[in-house]
Write a structure and sequence with these properties.
Elements lengths: L3 H12 L15 E6 L7 H8 L5 E4 L8 E5 L2 E5 L11 E4 L4 E2 L1 H13 L5 E5 L3 E2 L2 H11 L15 H9 L6 H4 L2 H21 L8 H15 L3 E2 L1 H10 L4 E4 L35 E9 L2 E3 L8 E2 L4 H9 L12 E3 L1 E2 H11 L3 E5 L9 E10 L2 E3 L6 H5 L2 E8 L5 E4 L2 E4 L1 H14 L3 E5 L7 E3 L9
Parallel strand pairs: 1-10, 1-11, 2-5, 2-10, 5-7, 6-8, 7-9, 11-16, 15-17, 16-22
Antiparallel strand pairs: 3-4, 12-14, 13-14, 17-18, 17-19, 20-21, 22-23
The protein binds inosinic acid (IMP) and magnesium ion.
Length: 458
């Protein structure tokens, strides 16, 4: 039996009727996302910086100041934790509802940029949650194992406890922070619970309610002019055919749902639409960024890990300068893991890839790439959901020839050497999606376009 709705659909098909709702006809609006295809630190910040001129808005949609993006422009190096990387370019930047905001850090970053003569055009979602000092204290206590549970190796920036309060409906949002009366009322409501929690976790120097009010009310006043309904602003921008770039932080293997739980961050690294307040159908292209090898900071499974005390591992750590931007911790390093990337390509809806830090592999005689995992129960081509299965998996490697020179200068740009290009083609063939960009150094211009792609162009 056909319902009324089927009848309408049939009518549309039969008479090629134009629906009066343009979106429903599948109009594609130009929002793109850049996501980390590994465990974070893939070089997303640099690519955002390269591509930002092609967009009107650059939006962060999850995470907080656990992130660390390094952007090198000429002789200047910028390090961001909270502001979208597009801020250097003077793009309109948005901190979306899915982000957790530490107001102290945000004010510092604004001061840093404005101090260097950059004008920041910023919009902060009024729905974004605020990281308060007790979140930071509780993160530290949990990492010291005071209440039992596992050590995750977090950045201790209060990210997990802030998202936990959001989910428990105990959070303080930006719309409250910037309104002194509401801020005080909300803090008085939730603080007693937080105080008990801090006592339970034996937090030393637990921040008092009065000290929080005293320090954070002025921060709210400083940030007030940036706070608005960011989802609405983005909706209007898309309607006006503005171009929007959604900038991921961390990586898909750290996603709260799809990552290597419990060794994950507490946000949805895949959730570009939900974390910015736009519909998923607006995101027409997803650029996955991966290093030409792999790194991970903190605890958790890492199948292709190498010892960083010697040999190739030590070399990757040193040549790649693999130390965390946020915490300075040495990163764990290993070979490129294609089963892991087949997985992130699927869960992230990645349509194109960029490979970064190819130059770090230069000088190796052979480069190994994990193409599958061998488990007691057979071969796996993709990343298993169960940590127990992952821990029993041994990577199966394919060895490809290394290179001494990654890329040559050609005119104003660069071209990959024959061997480096062969490595990229091998990865592309194994993964079944195009590698459209390669990065061969930290500078903006050390970025090679390998294939036509939709990103960054107006
Ligand atoms: P949290 O996000 O501070 O709670 O840390 C949870 C896990 O995510 C830890 O393993 C961190 O090292 C990792 N992590 C958080 N932010 C980043 C990042 O920006 N790059 C790489 N790893 C990160
Ligand atoms: Mg980073």
């Amino acid at each position: 039996m056909l319902g009324a709705a089927d009848g309408l659909a049939l009518a549309c098909l039969t008479f090629k009727m134009r629906l009066p709702f343009p979106r429903a006809e599948g109009t594609r609006l130009p929002a793109h996302a850049i996501l980390g295809a590994q465990w974070g630190d893939e070089g997303k910040g640099k690519l955002v910086d390269v591509l930002a001129p092609g967009y009107d808005f650059v939006v962060r949609f999850q995470g907080g100041n656990n992130a660390g993006h390094t952007v090198v422009v000429g002789k200047e190096t910028y390090k961001f934790h909270l502001l979208p990387s597009g801020a250097v370019q003077g793009r309109r930047v948005v901190i979306g509802n899915g982000v957790v905001v530490d107001p102290r850090v945000l004010v510092q970053e604004l001061d840093q940029l404005e101090g260097r003569g950059k004008k920041v055009r910023l919009l902060i979602s009024d729905r974004a949650h605020v990281i308060l000092p007790y979140h930071v204290s509780l993160d530290g206590a949990a990492e010291q194992g005071k209440g039992g549970g596992r050590k995750i190796g977090t950045t201790r920036r209060g990210i997990g406890p802030c998202y936990a309060d959001k989910a428990a409906r105990l959070g303080v949002r930006m719309m409250e922070l910037v309104d002194p009366a509401r801020f005080e009322a909300r803090l008085r409501e939730v603080y007693p619970l937080k105080e008990r929690e801090m006592r339970m976790w034996e937090v030393p120097d637990a921040p008092s309610l009065e000290s929080i009010l005293k320090d954070y009310t002025p921060l709210g006043a400083r940030l007030q002019r940036y706070v608005a309904d960011a989802g609405e602003a983005l909706g209007a921008a898309l309607k006006g055919k503005k171009r929007v770039l959604l900038e991921g932080a961390q990586g898909l293997l750290l996603d709260i749902d799809h990552g290597t739980y419990p060794y994950v961050t507490s946000s949805s690294t895949v959730g570009a639409a939900g974390g910015s307040g736009m519909g998923a159908h607006h995101v027409e292209g997803v650029l996955g960024v991966a290093k030409a090898y792999a790194t991970r900071v903190g605890e958790g499974p890492f199948p292709t890990e190498l010892s960083s005390a010697e040999g190739v591992g030590k070399r990757l750590l040193e040549v790649g300068k693999e130390f965390g931007t946020t915490t300075g911790r040495p990163r764990r390093v290993g070979w490129l893991d294609l089963p892991a990337m087949r997985y992130t390509i699927r869960v992230g809806g990645i349509t194109h890839l960029a490979l970064t830090k190819l130059d770090v592999l230069a000088g190796l005689e052979r480069v190994e790439v994990a193409v599958a995992y061998q488990t007691p129960k057979g071969t796996l081509r993709s990343f298993p959901s169960d940590e127990a299965r992952l821990l029993g998996a041994r990577p199966r490697y394919t060895s490809v020839p290394g290179w001494t020179e990654t890329a040559k200068r050609v005119g104003k740009g660069w071209a990959l050497s024959k061997e480096a290009a062969a490595y990229v083609r091998f990865v592309e063939k194994e993964l079944g999606i195009p590698v459209v960009m390669a990065s061969v150094g930290p500078a903006r211009d050390a970025t090679i376009t390998l294939r036509r792609h939709p990103f960054g162009r107006a």
